[in-house]
Structure formats: structure tokens, C-alpha cells
């Protein structure tokens, strides 16, 4: 033994010397990091002392086994340590790992030599030297481990605490202690969390995956991911092999200890070796587990950062999508989170398979030729695992897809909640989302059944394999005249437990790997889709002299451009287009709805893919773009205008000029926060006009060479519009001054005068030239353009409405201190009976899984007298355990999880959709989406399982402690002490982990919001060239999210190693007692105790982990309950009263002294008195901020009514539920058309489902949309001849397709009738794309369908009111909010004709807000219809004509 200790000591020294030169070279290349201090001097002195002691030891007590060369290894190593210590102290921010490993290894050899009696030195002098040497090493270890915070030089980059920590601090997670102290004593926040390792930064991870994506020829995303994380991926292999060795050291230790206790001839040295072996095995097990798990945690964080970065990069580069901005969120929440643990699955699979091989070898040594018995059961069970793996992928994919559909629709709904409330379709939307939720749970049920089957198989393996092996061995032993002895039984049980557990884990990870591969495929398919590949070619830059050149170069040049339709059989949207725009020119483009104007804009920006033929050439890649629907991220007004690439303190004079030019001064003067006001998600805190002017200001502020404007003035009143046009396009306008090239989509005639060139577009350029030439050239051209004889100020929905929106804050206060009521809340949602059955199965399982250990003790003491009895009892115990585990699994994932998930989702959805409008303006959409994604997924996938696991571990621990106390009564004395330690540990841990989890969820919401904003604004981002800035913003938000998550994972590892060391102490203490008190303990008692400790260690860890998981998952319940409890509701506790059947039947509206506000600081209407007679059409006019749209919102119950009453047909609206008001009393057609892309066309135009197919087709035909929407499905063979002929007859697709021509019209009608159901049932996203004007026409068609649905007296109680056969039909009031803002003159005329036919002529009262009165003037009925002029929230006058009043405030 002395020789072995000496050889180990030499190996340690030689290894240190071999590594020393490379480390010295590394340090010599670095700069000095620390200043001189007492710390460095003390280390130098101790190093010299250590060297002297090494020399002294060799002189005083030379080893008899040592050659002269080997004898010098230790002194030379000590000398090298002196130089290395000095250099490490000066040039490294962390203590030296090499020095500490060398010193600890050397100290272990000294301790062994001093503890084992036969190795102790015989003479006193040698003993003194060895003990002094051990003390010097210990002191040197302590000083070398100290952090260097106080000695680090200033001016360097901040070093994360983990990087500054010693190897002991990293292995035992000592650097986490300050976080624990802060979390226990104070409130943690993102501002006081320490930074994490630089290797985990989003920037580094993003660069690595993009480099691997570019360089790797393989298209396999798993291989690309492995390449980008190659080094950290391999770094966990060594600690995993060590973990394997220490795990199988446990059964060997059990056998060793039993043999020692039972043998009367063992020496004192053997007892010392048993104790040292226990220390080595259990300490090594704790350390190797911590290092391995920490490596996997780092990989988990890296995988998430890598995939989110890759997903965001793809969203910046992929083609923009008109529909489905929830797709990227679904990929981030479902697929990426499913792939975070892929490294765990990979490493555990090979490691567990290796453990099976090692365990089989050890098992063969114990039971001989019976070793194949468990493998037979493994093979049988693996067939079930194979079946599950084969069928799981498709089911998991279907579940993920169903989840994506639900989240995508929820995202779309939350982004347009104002429109939904105005339309009165929130009940229908709720039913639609709940239907998707039911479909999602049905798909989940198929996966869960597969997991129940697999669980039964896996548990059968874990229970019946040990039973079969032990039973067969006992029977054979009995037949041969022997009995089952403790030295065979308990080590065999321990080995079998490890083997079957490893085999189980392999079969567990196989289905999980298959499910993960499905996520890989889906993510890879998305990433490998058509990437953004701009067809633009950048022309050489024009020098600054171009301003004076008589021959300016073209800024935009298009040749032979052909853009095909996005559906089979459709005609080209743009066909052979040729266009050239010279630098500095302002070109106005006009044309009919669907003529390709927006498509041309997107093509210029490089957004239309595929581009069939043609060439686009721009003088610059960076283009200022103002979209028809502006993209406004949830930032302050100033941040939006400046854009992400500019410092907010730069160019204040230019900023003021732009604000003035875009008429934003008055808006900024009114809002409390000025330009520091948050605009809310998608600009919800702004009116339509304010959103357009802010986007326009952003485009102007950037001073790009080319500006593309897609109808940017459609929501502005005439006065504001005219002023902005002159400020920008006039002779002294900003665009003229900057010599900016402008391509401008507009249909307003009077603006064409300021343009240098006008293009009339309808699939191709129909006419072009200066407007003075075109306006008299062709009557058809003139008809396409607006002639606004009457321009009135357009509503800005009251500029005072802009309020500073506070970011949503996820409150977790009740959970921070523990709240038992949460369990009641959750159990009620899951069903008390279901929970009770689950708990009963857990208790039963815990008993039947643990008691067999004690049963084996009795069996081994029986000496073979009752083998049949013990065999039968042993088998029955495990059979009952197997039945219990199946009951746990089925009750947990088939009853508790789906019931609670469905109930809590329904309550959450009802709460959110019934919240008032101001809730959405003050709560970030990412926070709300977190509830529907993260929190609901916690409920679906984690909470029930965590609750069940916690119950199982609690019951198991109770049974194990009872058995251990019975077997070793002396341990009972330590139970209160152990319980107190565990209680303190979990209390400190849980208080901090809860806070970190809350911070992580809040910061994760920011990542989701960033992904959503990028997806929604990708066209604008790419046009301005802001990809790099948006990537930086994503990396910043991702880093903020990764930090609390990584700290939470490190906190879990801290908990694991603390509990592992605690259990190791108990085990070592028990073995020490057995050694010291040898002769008073039997081998059976030792075997039971060590076997129970082996599983108690796991149980204790699983208990705290389960407790933690339950606590974390209950955080989701806290948030869901808080949302339900704290979110204000529109109707409050008073839900209104039922109204009479057929209400409203006349449509009389009366506002009596109404004052309303958006909030307490924002007055919208003041003492408004107005009476509207039945069937009357009222046009609301006024200048910006006069209160026109506020008037409509007050009618719909979206504003706070401070005083006065609104009655409809004599019924006070304050007594009627808001849903009834919006869905029955009013039908709203808004300029912000809202549609669900993943829902069917039928649902989008008839959410109530009350209108039959023929009527829906007729409405769409009347709106001129049916042929366009049905063009891809009219002919089963895909031919489109009929469509082309019909369009030729109908002309522009605007007018009614029934033109009276006879045969062809009837033929088209017959074809469309036979296939109308297929068109109506098709998702809107799969139908031909609609232009902005066509989208507005579809909104009008929906309004007509809503009126028809509301007017029926034979419909079922859709509004929960009784209907009688003789009830008069409901006649809803029609609200029109800028319904023609995006339409050309011809379509506008057709729309007004349709409004008259469907609403006015049928006796409906109509209230219209518009600033385009030219086309409507001739349709006003003298003596009946009126114009209401508003100013500053008051009704200024009521006029029977549209003549502008003389009041200067209204002009």
C-alpha cells in the first residue's frame, strides 16, 4: 500500500511538471491584471516554505521505493509552483486551477498516509515533517483559492463572478452564495444580478452558429448546432465517465462494508480503507455530478441562445409574410424550448448505455450465468419503446402544430384587440380560440397515451428485472442447498437498480429524442425556407456634384418586371413593367384597387419573391419606407423617429424641424410625457393619423436618398394633410431641399400637382407624364382619382389619448412568501377527485417501492427456511408497485393535466378578452403572450407531473426514513438535525429561486416581444438597413433573459451538491459507526442501511427538485390567478341586464350631456348632446383631435363615461353588457380592418355563423371580391379561362358580376356555387393575397354579413335573449370609421352605393366619420341626413349640408 501511495504522489508531481511549461507560456502572453498586495506576498512565502518542506521530507524520510530520479519529482514540482504562483497572481483574474488541483491531489496522498495505521511513519521526526507539510499545503490551498477582486486593476472589462472564482468556487458553486444572500435578504431585480460567463453571451453564440451555418455543407441542423458548440459539447464527457465510475463504486462499497462487518479477521487498516473509500465514493459522486450537470446546463443555455439568435437572424433575412406573425413566437416557445435539452439526451443516452454494459459485468460477478435475465426483460420492454418511438414523432409534430395555431391566433387577436372590441366579435373570437385549444388537447392526448404505454413498460423493466433475477438466484441457491446471503443480495440489488435504471433512461431518451428530432425538422424547415434575396442591384454611388448636373442619374430603374400571382391560374400582378425615376424626382403613382401599387412598392424594396423576370436597380440599398400600415415598435416617440441606429442626443435641430414638418408639435405638447411617451404595442396608444405621421417623420428624419411612401396620408384630415404635403413636397419642402427621390402611392388629385411625374398603374403603366397633361387626356384616368371638393379635418382619435404605457410587470408577490391557497386554486381547476386518486396512487407506490428492501433483510436472515413465502411476497410487493405507478401516470397526464390546462386557459382567455381597452395600452403584448404560452405550457407539461413527483418523493422519504430508523436506531438521533439542515437549505434556496424565476419570465417576455416586432416590421427594417441594430437589440434582450435563467440553473446545481454532500456525510458517518462499533451490527443491517441510503440520496434530491419544480410551476398559477383577480373587466361586477327582444328595432340614438375620457388625465368628450333619429345618416366632421372617433368609441363603451347617458331606442347603454352593445346594437366598419389569417374565409366575414353560403357569396360578389378570392378554386382542373373572361366582362373586378350578359355570367355563377363551400372554408392565408383596398372591401362585406346576422329573428339565442316568432327584426346601427381611406375613386363610389343599398335604404341608422366627402355629397338626403361638426370634444354645430361652417375653429 505504501508503494501505491508513493506512485500516486509521483504521478501527481510529474503531471504537474508536464503541464507547467504550457501554462507558463500562456501566462507570459497576457497582460498584468493585478497590483501588488499582501495576498501575493503571502502566497509567495508559503510557496517557498512548501518547497523547503519538500526538500526536508526527502532528506529526513526518503522513500524506500523511490529511485533518485523519481525522488526529485516532488521537489522540482514545488520549485515550479513558486514561479507559477507568482505569474498566476499577476496575469490571471482567477486563482490557478493547475496549482489547486496539484496541491489537493498531493494533500490527499498525505492524508491517506497519516490516517492508515500501517502507513503512518514510525519515527516522530518524519511524522512531524509530514504533518507540517500537510498543514503548509492546506494553507497554500486556502490562499491560492482566495479571489482577487480587491487587487484587480481598474479600467478592464467587468469580470463575471464565475470567471473570477477558483476551481473550488466553481465546483461547489461558492460564487452563487452572494446571490443567495441577496435573494434572501433583499428583493432581486435584473439590475442587481451578476453578469454571466462571456462564453454564454448572445453575440458569441450568434456568431458561432451563423459561421457554422455558412460553412457547413450539411443541411442537418443538429450537426450544425454540434459544430458551433463543439468544445462545450465534448467537455462534459470526462465528468460523465467519472460519474459512471462513482455510481458503480456504491455497490462495490456495499459489498466491501458487508464483508468487513461480517468478517472477524479484518485488520484495522481495512476499517480505515472502508471509511476512506466511502469518503472517496460519495464525495466523488457529488463533485462529478455537479460538474457534469453544470456542463449540461451551460449547453442548455448555449443551445437556447444559439437557436434564438439563428431564428432572429432568419426573421431578418426571410421573406416578409403578410399573415402569421405568431409563427416565429411559436417556434421560439415550442420548438426552441423543446430542443434546449438535446445535449442532455445525447450524453445521457451513450452514458446510460455504457452503464448498462458496466453493470452487466458486475452483475455477472455476483449472480453468474443469471446475468442475462434482466436483459431478456430489457429486450421485451425495448420493443414497446420502439413502438412508441416509431409512432411518437407524428403525434408530437401534430401537437406542436396545434399549439402553434393557437398561439398564432392568440398573437393576432392580442395585436388587434381594439378592432375586435369595436367589431363586437370577441365572443366569436373566444369560441374560435377555445376550439383550437380543444384541438390542441386532443392532439396532446394522443402523445400522452403513448407516454402512459411507455411508462408501464419502463416501470415493468425497473421492477420485474430485479425481482426475476433475485427470485431465480434464490430458487437455484435453495435447490443447491444454499440460501440467499446478504453479501450477494444487497450488492446485487444495488447493481440491478443501476442497470435497470440506466436501461430505463435509454428507453426514455429514445422517444424524447424522436420528439426532439421532430422539433429539429420543423425548425430546420422554417430556417431553410426561401430566404430573403433582394433582386435589387446597387448602382455606383453618384457624386455630390449630381445636384448641379443637367443629366441626373436614375435613382430607380426597372426593366421588364413581371410579378406573378401568388395562386395557381391567376394573372400576373405586374406584367412587363418598365419604369425609371431620376434622382431628385417626386413620382406619384395611382391606380385602381388591386392594380399592383403596393406590390410595386414591395418589389422596389426587394420583398416580392419569386421575381419571375426583370431587373430592379437602385442608387442605394438604404431606402426610407413609410408603409400603408406603419410599423411602430413599443418604444418612445423620440426613439421611433430617431430609429435604432442613431443616438437620441444627435441632431436636435433637425429633429425639431422634422417634428414641425410632420405636424407633430401639437400632439407632443398635449401628451404628459411628450416625446418620451411609449406608443404601446403596434402603436395602440396612438390614433391612425398619429401613427402615419410618426412613421412619416421617421422616414424624413433618416435623410435617405430614396423615400418610398405607400399612401401615408390616408388617415389624415385635409388641413393636416395639405400642410404636411407642402412642408415636404413644396418648393421649400424638406424633400426638395435634400434633393430626395420620392416614389409616392396616392390617389388624391390635388397632390399630383406637387409631383414631377405621375404614373397610372393597373398591372402595367397605363398612362404616365405630368399631371397637367394627364388630367385632360383620358376620362378613365380622371375617374380613378379623387376629386375632393370637400376636405374636412380627419379625426386623430383625440391626441390626448396617448398615455404612457407601463410595461407589464409579472407579479409574484404571493408566491414569494408561499401561499397554500394556490394549491386549492389549482386542485379545483384539475378536479378534486382526480387529484385525490393521484395522491392515493403516490402513497401506495412509495410504500411498495421501498418496503422490499426490508423484506430482503428478513429473507436473508431466514436462511432458506421459507423461500417460497419470501419469493411470493417479494414478487407481489413489486407487482403492486407497478400497478400504483401506472395509476400515477394515467391520473396525472390523462386527467389532472388536461383538465387543469383547459380550465385555466378558458379563464385566462375570458379575463383577457373582457379587459378594458386601457389595459392593453398599458400592458406589453409580450407579457400577455407569456401567460398564453409559457404559463399554459407549465400547466400542460410540468405542473401536474411535478406535483405528482413531489408527492411520490415525500411518501418515499417517509418510508425510507422509517426503515432506516428501524434498522439503525442511532440514526434517529440525527433526524431532527438533518431535518433542520434540509429545511434551512430549501428555505434559502426557494426564496431566491422564486425571484429569479419571476425575473427570467419577465425578461423572456422582452425576447418574445422583440421577435414579434422584428417579424412585423421586417420590411421597414430592411428598407432602412437596420438589420444590425435590430440584431443588437435582440442580443441585448436575450442576454438579459439568459442571465437570470443561468443563475437559476446554477442555483439548482448549488442545491444538488449541498444535498449530495449532506447525504455523503450521513453515509460516511454511518459507515464510520459500523467500523468503530464492529460486532454490534449485522451484515443485513449494513446492507439495508447502505441500500436505502443509496436510494435516499436520490429521493432527497428528487424531493427538493420536485419541490422546486412545483414552486416554479406554481409561479405560473400565481400569475394566472393574479391576472384573473387583478385584471379590470369592462362590465365589472355588474354584467348588465337583458333587453327586450328585437332591440334595437328603430335605431334612435340620444346622447344626453355626455362627458367621457380615456383616463383620468385625458378628457375626450365634454357635455355632448345629440339626438339621432331612426334611419338617419350622420356624418361626423371636425379637425384633428376634435373628438370624432372618441364619439364612436363612447357609443361602443370603449371610453369611460364620466357623466350623462347614452340611450338607444330608450334603453340606457350603461345597463347593457358591452358584448351586447357591440355585437347586437351596433355594427362597426373600421379603417383598421382586422382578419384572422388562419381562420376560414367564412369565419372572417361571418363570425356568428348565422348567414348561409349563398348569401355570403352574394355579399362578396357585391363587394367585387368573389372572383378574386375564388379564382384559384373555380376550375377543378386549375384552368382560369372563366376567370379571365369574367374579369373582362365585369371590368376591374369592382362591380357586381351579374352584368346581365347571360350565358357567361350564369356559367361563372354555377361554377362558383358548386365550389363556394371550398372557398369559404379555406383559411384566409391560403387564398389570393388582398391589397389594402381589397382588405377594406372585405371589412365592408363583413359589416353587411353582421347586419344580416343581427337582423334575423329566427336565429338561436346568440345573445342569450329569448326570441319569439312574432318578434320584430333587430336593426343594428351602423358605425363607419374612415371606410374609404384606402380606396380609389371608382371603388369609393361602389362602396357608397353598397352602403346605401345595404344600410341606408333598408332603414338602418348610420354614423359616419370621414374626411373624403366628395363622393358622398350627392348621396346625402336633404332634410334627413346631417353633418355634425365637432371641436375640442364638443358638438359645435349640426348642419343639413356638408358646407364648412364659418367658425374659425372648424376650418
From TrEMBL:
The chain crosses the membrane at residues 6-25, 37-57, 69-87, 99-116, 229-249, 270-292, 369-389, 452-477, 489-510, 825-849, 869-897, 1057-1078. Signal peptide: none annotated. It comes from the Eukaryota. GO terms for cellular component: membrane. Keywords: ATP-binding, Membrane, Nucleotide-binding, Transmembrane, Transmembrane helix, Transport. Residues 241-515, 836-1110 form the ABC transmembrane type-1 domain. Coiled coil: none annotated. This is ABC transporter type 1, transmembrane domain-containing protein.
Amino acid at each position: 500500500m505504501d508503494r501505491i501511495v508513493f506512485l500516486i504522489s509521483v504521478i501527481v508531481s510529474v503531471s504537474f511538471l508536464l503541464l507547467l511549461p504550457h501554462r507558463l507560456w500562456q501566462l507570459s502572453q497576457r497582460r498584468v491584471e493585478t497590483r501588488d498586495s499582501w495576498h501575493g506576498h503571502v502566497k509567495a512565502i508559503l510557496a517557498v516554505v512548501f518547497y523547503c518542506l519538500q526538500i526536508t521530507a526527502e532528506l529526513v524520510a526518503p522513500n524506500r521505493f523511490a529511485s533518485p530520479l523519481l525522488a526529485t519529482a516532488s521537489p522540482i514540482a514545488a520549485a515550479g509552483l513558486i514561479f507559477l504562483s507568482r505569474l498566476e497572481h499577476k496575469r490571471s483574474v482567477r486563482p490557478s486551477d493547475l496549482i489547486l488541483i496539484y496541491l489537493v491531489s498531493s494533500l490527499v496522498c498525505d492524508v491517506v498516509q497519516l490516517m492508515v495505521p500501517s502507513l503512518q511513519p514510525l519515527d516522530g521526526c518524519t511524522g512531524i515533517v509530514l504533518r507540517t507539510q500537510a498543514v503548509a499545503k492546506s494553507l497554500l490551498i486556502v490562499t491560492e483559492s482566495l479571489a482577487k477582486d480587491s487587487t484587480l486593476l481598474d479600467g478592464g472589462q467587468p469580470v463575471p463572478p464565475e470567471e473570477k472564482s477558483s476551481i473550488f468556487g466553481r465546483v461547489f458553486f461558492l460564487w452563487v452564495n452572494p446571490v443567495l444572500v441577496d435573494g434572501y435578504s433583499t428583493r432581486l431585480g435584473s439590475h442587481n444580478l451578476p453578469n454571466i460567463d462571456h462564453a454564454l453571451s448572445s453575440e458569441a453564440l450568434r456568431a458561432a452558429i451563423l459561421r457554422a451555418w455558412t460553412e457547413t455543407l450539411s443541411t442537418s441542423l443538429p450537426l450544425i448546432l454540434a459544430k458551433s458548440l463543439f468544445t462545450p459539447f465534448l467537455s462534459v464527457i470526462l465528468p460523465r465517465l467519472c460519474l459512471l465510475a462513482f455510481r458503480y463504486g456504491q455497490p462495490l462499497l456495499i459489498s466491501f462494508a458487508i464483508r468487513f462487518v461480517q468478517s472477524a479477521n479484518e485488520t484495522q487498516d481495512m476499517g480505515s480503507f472502508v471509511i476512506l473509500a466511502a469518503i472517496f465514493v460519495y464525495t466523488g459522486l457529488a463533485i462529478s455530478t455537479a460538474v457534469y450537470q453544470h456542463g449540461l446546463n451551460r449547453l442548455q443555455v448555449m443551445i437556447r441562445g444559439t437557436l434564438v439568435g439563428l431564428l432572429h437572424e432568419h426573421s431578418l433575412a426571410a421573406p416578409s409574410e403578410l399573415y402569421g406573425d405568431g409563427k416565429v413566437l411559436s417556434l421560439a416557445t415550442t420548438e426552441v424550448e423543446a430542443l434546449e435539452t438535446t445535449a442532455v439526451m445525447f450524453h445521457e443516452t451513450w452514458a446510460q448505455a455504457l452503464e448498462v454494459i458496466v453493470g452487466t459485468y458486475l452483475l455477472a460477478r455476483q449472480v453468474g450465468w443469471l446475468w442475462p435475465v434482466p436483459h431478456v426483460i430489457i429486450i421485451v420492454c425495448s420493443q414497446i419503446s420502439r413502438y412508441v418511438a416509431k409512432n411518437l414523432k407524428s403525434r408530437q409534430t401534430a401537437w406542436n402544430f396545434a399549439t402553434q395555431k393557437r398561439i398564432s391566433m392568440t398573437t393576432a387577436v392580442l395585436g388587434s384587440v381594439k378592432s375586435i372590441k369595436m367589431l363586437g366579435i370577441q365572443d366569436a373570437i373566444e369560441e374560435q380560440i377555445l376550439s383550437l385549444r380543444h384541438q390542441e388537447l386532443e392532439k396532446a392526448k394522443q402523445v400522452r397515451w403513448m407516454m402512459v404505454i411507455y411508462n408501464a413498460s419502463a416501470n415493468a423493466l425497473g421492477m420485474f428485472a430485479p425481482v426475476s433475477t433475485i427470485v431465480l438466484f434464490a430458487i437455484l441457491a435453495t435447490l443447491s442447498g444454499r440460501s440467499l446471503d446478504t453479501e450477494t443480495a444487497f450488492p446485487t440489488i444495488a447493481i440491478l437498480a443501476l442497470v435497470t435504471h440506466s436501461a430505463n433512461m435509454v428507453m426514455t431518451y429514445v422517444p424524447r429524442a424522436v420528439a426532439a428530432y421532430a422539433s429539429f425538422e420543423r425548425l430546420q424547415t422554417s430556417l431553410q425556407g426561401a430566404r430573403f434575396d433582394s433582386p435589387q442591384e446597387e448602382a455606383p454611388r453618384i457624386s455630390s456634384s449630381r445636384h448641379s448636373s443637367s443629366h441626373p442619374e436614375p435613382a430607380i430603374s426597372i426593366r421588364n418586371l413581371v410579378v406573378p400571382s401568388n395562386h395557381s391560374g391567376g394573372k400576373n400582378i405586374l406584367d412587363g413593367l418598365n419604369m425609371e425615376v431620376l434622382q431628385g424626382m417626386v413620382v406619384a403613382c395611382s391606380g385602381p384597387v388591386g392594380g399592383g401599387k403596393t406590390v410595386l412598392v414591395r418589389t422596389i424594396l426587394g420583398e416580392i419573391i419569386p421575381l419571375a423576370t426583370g431587373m430592379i436597380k437602385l442608387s442605394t440599398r438604404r431606402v426610407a419606407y413609410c408603409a400603408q400600415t406603419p410599423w411602430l415598435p413599443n418604444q418612445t416617440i423620440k426613439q421611433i423617429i430617431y430609429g435604432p441606429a442613431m443616438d437620441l442626443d444627435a441632431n436636435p435641430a433637425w429633429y425639431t424641424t422634422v417634428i414641425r414638418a410632420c405636424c407633430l408639435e401639437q400632439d407632443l405638447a398635449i401628451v404628459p410625457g411628450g416625446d418620451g411617451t411609449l406608443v404601446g404595442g403596434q402603436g395602440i396608444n396612438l390614433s391612425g393619423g398619429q401613427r402615419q405621421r410618426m412613421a412619416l417623420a421617421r422616414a424624413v428624419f433618416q435623410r435617405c436618398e430614396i423615400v418610398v411612401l405607400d399612401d401615408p396620408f390616408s388617415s389624415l384630415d385635409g388641413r393636416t394633410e395639405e400642410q404636411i404635403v407642402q412642408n415636404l413636397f413644396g418648393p421649400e419642402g424638406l424633400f426638395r431641399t435634400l434633393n430626395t427621390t420620392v416614389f409616392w402611392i396616392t390617389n388624391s388629385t390635388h397632390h399630383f400637382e406637387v409631383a414631377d411625374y405621375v404614373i397610372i398603374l393597373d398591372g402595367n403603366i397605363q398612362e404616365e407624364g405630368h399631371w397637367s397633361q394627364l388630367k385632360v387626356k383620358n376620362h378613365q384616368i380622371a375617374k380613378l382619382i379623387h376629386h375632393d371638393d370637400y376636405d374636412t379635418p380627419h379625426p386623430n382619435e383625440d391626441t390626448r389619448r396617448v398615455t404612457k404605457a407601463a410595461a407589464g410587470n409579472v407579479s409574484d408577490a404571493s408566491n414569494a412568501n408561499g401561499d397554500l391557497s394556490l394549491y386549492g386554486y389549482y386542485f379545483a381547476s384539475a378536479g378534486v377527485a382526480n387529484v385525490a386518486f393521484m395522491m392515493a396512487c403516490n402513497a401506495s407506490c412509495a410504500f411498495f417501492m421501498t418496503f422490499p428492501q426490508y423484506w430482503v433483510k428478513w429473507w436473508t436472515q431466514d436462511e432458506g427456511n421459507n423461500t417460497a413465502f419470501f419469493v411470493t411476497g417479494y414478487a407481489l410487493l413489486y407487482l403492486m408497485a407497478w400497478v400504483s405507478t401506472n395509476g400515477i401516470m394515467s391520473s396525472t397526464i390523462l386527467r389532472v393535466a388536461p383538465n387543469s390546462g383547459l380550465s385555466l386557459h378558458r379563464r385566462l382567455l375570458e379575463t383577457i378578452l373582457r379587459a378594458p381597452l386601457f389595459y392593453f395600452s398599458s400592458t406589453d403584448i409580450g407579457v400577455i403572450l407569456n401567460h398564453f404560452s409559457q404559463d399554459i405550457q407549465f400547466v400542460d407539461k410540468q405542473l401536474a407531473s411535478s406535483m405528482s413527483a413531489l408527492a411520490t418523493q415525500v411518501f418515499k422519504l417517509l418510508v425510507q426514513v422509517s426503515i432506516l430508523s428501524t434498522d439503525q436506531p442511532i440514526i434517529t438521533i440525527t433526524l431532527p438535525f438533518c431535518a433542520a439542515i434540509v429545511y434551512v437549505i430549501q428555505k434559502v434556496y426557494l426564496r431566491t429561486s422564486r425571484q429569479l424565476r419571476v425575473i427570467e419570465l419577465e425578461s423572456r417576455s422582452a425576447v418574445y416581444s422583440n421577435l414579434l416586432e422584428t417579424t412585423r416590421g421586417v420590411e421597414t427594417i430592411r428598407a432602412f438597413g437596420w438589420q444590425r441594430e435590430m440584431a443588437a437589440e435582440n442580443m441585448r434582450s436575450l442576454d438579459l433573459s439568459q442571465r437570470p435563467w443561468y443563475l437559476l440553473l446554477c442555483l439548482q446545481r448549488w442545491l444538488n451538491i449541498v444535498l449530495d454532500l449532506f447525504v455523503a456525510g450521513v453515509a460516511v458517518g454511518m459507515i464510520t459507526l459500523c467500523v468503530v462499533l464492529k460486532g454490534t451490527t449485522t451484515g443485513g443491517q449494513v446492507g439495508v442501511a447502505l441500500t436505502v441510503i443509496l436510494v435516499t440520496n436520490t429521493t432527497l434530491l428528487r424531493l427538493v427538485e420536485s419541490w422546486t419544480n412545483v414552486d416554479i410551476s406554481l409561479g405560473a398559477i400565481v400569475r394566472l390567478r393574479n391576472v384573473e383577480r387583478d385584471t379590470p373587466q369592462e362590465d365589472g361586477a355588474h354584467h348588465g341586464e337583458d333587453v327586450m327582444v328585437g332591440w334595437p328595432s328603430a335605431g334612435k340614438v340620444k346622447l344626453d350631456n355626455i362627458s367621457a375620457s380615456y383616463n383620468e388625465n385625458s378628457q375626450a368628450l365634454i357635455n355632448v348632446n345629440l339626438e339621432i333619429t331612426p334611419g338617419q345618416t350622420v356624418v361626423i366632421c371636425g379637425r384633428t383631435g376634435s373628438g370624432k372617433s372618441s364619439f364612436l368609441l363612447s357609443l361602443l363603451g370603449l371610453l369611460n363615461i364620466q357623466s350623462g347617458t347614452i340611450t338607444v331606442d330608450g334603453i340606457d347603454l350603461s345597463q347593457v353588457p358591452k358584448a351586447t352593445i357591440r355585437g347586437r346594437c351596433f355594427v362597426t366598419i373600421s379603417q383598421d380592418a382586422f382578419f384572422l389569417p388562419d381562420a376560414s374565409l367564412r369565419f372572417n366575414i361571418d363570425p356568428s355563423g348565422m348567414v348561409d353560403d349563398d348569401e355570403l357569396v352574394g355579399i362578396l360578389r357585391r363587394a367585387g371580391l368573389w372572383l378574386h378570392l375564388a379564382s384559384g378554386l373555380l376550375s377543378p382542373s386549375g384552368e382560369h379561362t372563366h376567370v379571365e373572361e369574367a374579369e373582362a366582362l365585369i371590368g376591374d373586378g369592382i362591380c357586381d358580376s351579374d352584368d346581365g350578359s347571360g350565358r357567361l355570367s350564369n356559367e361563372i355563377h354555377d361554377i362558383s356555387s358548386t365550389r363556394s363551400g371550398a372557398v369559404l372554408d379555406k383559411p384566409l392565408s391560403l387564398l389570393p393575397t388582398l391589397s389594402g383596398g381589397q382588405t377594406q372591401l372585405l371589412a365592408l362585406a363583413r359589416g353587411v354579413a353582421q347586419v344580416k346576422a343581427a337582423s334575423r329573428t329566427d336565429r338561436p339565442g346568440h345573445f342569450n335573449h329569448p326570441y319569439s316568432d312574432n318578434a320584430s327584426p333587430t336593426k343594428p346601427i351602423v358605425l363607419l370609421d374612415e371606410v374609404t381611406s384606402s380606396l380609389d375613386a371608382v371603388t369609393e363610389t361602389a362602396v357608397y352605393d353598397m352602403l346605401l343599398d345595404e344600410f341606408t335604404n333598408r332603414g338602418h341608422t348610420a354614423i359616419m366619420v370621414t374626411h373624403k366627402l366628395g363622393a358622398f355629397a350627392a348621396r346625402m338626403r336633404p332634410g334627413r341626413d346631417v353633418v355634425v361638426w365637432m371641436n375640442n370634444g364638443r358638438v359645435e354645430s349640426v348642419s343639413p349640408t356638408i358646407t364648412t361652417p364659418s367658425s374659425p375653429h372648424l376650418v
